[in-house]
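WP5 quarterly update. Target: branched-chain-amino-acid transaminase. Source organism: Lachnospira intestinalis. Length: 342 aa.
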Amino acid sequence: MKMEKKNLDWANLGFGYVKTDKRFVANYKDGAWDDGVITDDDKVVLNECAGVLQYAQTCFEGLKAYTTEDGHIVMFRPDLNAQRMHDSCERLEMPPFPVDKFVQAVTDTVKANAAWVPPFGSGATLYIRPYMFGSNPVIGVKPADEYQFRILTTPVGPYFKGGAKPLTIKVSDFDRAAPHGTGHIKAGLNYAMSLHAIVTAHKEGYAENMYLDPATRTKVEETGGANFLFVTKDGTVVTPKSNSILPSITRRSLVYVAKEILGLKVEEREVTLEEVKDFAECGLCGTAAVISPVGKIVDHGKEICMPSGMEKMGPTIQKLYDTLTGIQMGKLEAPKGWIYTV
Ligand code: PLP
Ligand code: COI
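Structure tokens (predicted):
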């Protein structure tokens, strides 16, 4: 769908909240979801004892809408976000919002905010944030009986300042997730857990944390908001496999792109911190991060410098980035079912 765009300085947007015109709201009560509405009202009014406020019963998703070269608006694999939110809800004893209705609600919300979807080539995108929370009073530790599901949208630029410049990150002394915990779902509580670690990393001058596996602290997990990709010196793409990391849709898509489109070898396996020094390239992948290159990883004062350096992305990460963003922006043909036109 086409619409006159808002007059924003798209190229200089950071990753922040800008209030857009419309949002979606649905409520769960007496064991059922209502149909939901698109509304102008950006305020949430809750009882002081709402489940989300007491025991953090909330989960969320993140995906993006893009304007293609010919002016259409598209979304990237929203069905996978719908399914992942379904899984998050089940783990948190929340009532899943039906997958087909989720995709429809996201489509409707983006359509209602078409003027806010950044123009093709601007470097910005429309970030879509579906989220759900327990809304009725809860004081004993138990799931809420009532929930609200909302979808907000906000135009965003790069997640990391400096765009495509390689990042310096640190190995964290904190754990993000527990063994058999909630690291594999998109629960708000995982992000609350990571706030002290990210503030600490930023104070020390690092862009992000590399979290290690909580049981042995020897294996690479992920960062606070993205999965890792490594490239070996002979061009194999390696990405950590773990039950306590978020199953990134970007990472799953890149594994397919690497294997099926670029003809690269891919290994999804445990990656030890010890072997990181032997890799040629490193990147962080996610909806917000897209693929952000990492140039240096600091492990308690010991620097691990990627041969790809601090100036630009390594060649394999660059190829993956160009192919993925080409597909997302409609410049390259997408695998079947990846692109939803709004
Ligand atoms: N890992 C974490 C902890 C995240 O918050 C995200 C963002 O959603 C990702 C990985 C990347 O996942 P996706 O590619 O589905 O956005
Ligand atoms: C996303 O990439 O959508 C996320 O949710 C990551 C978040 C840290 C912004």
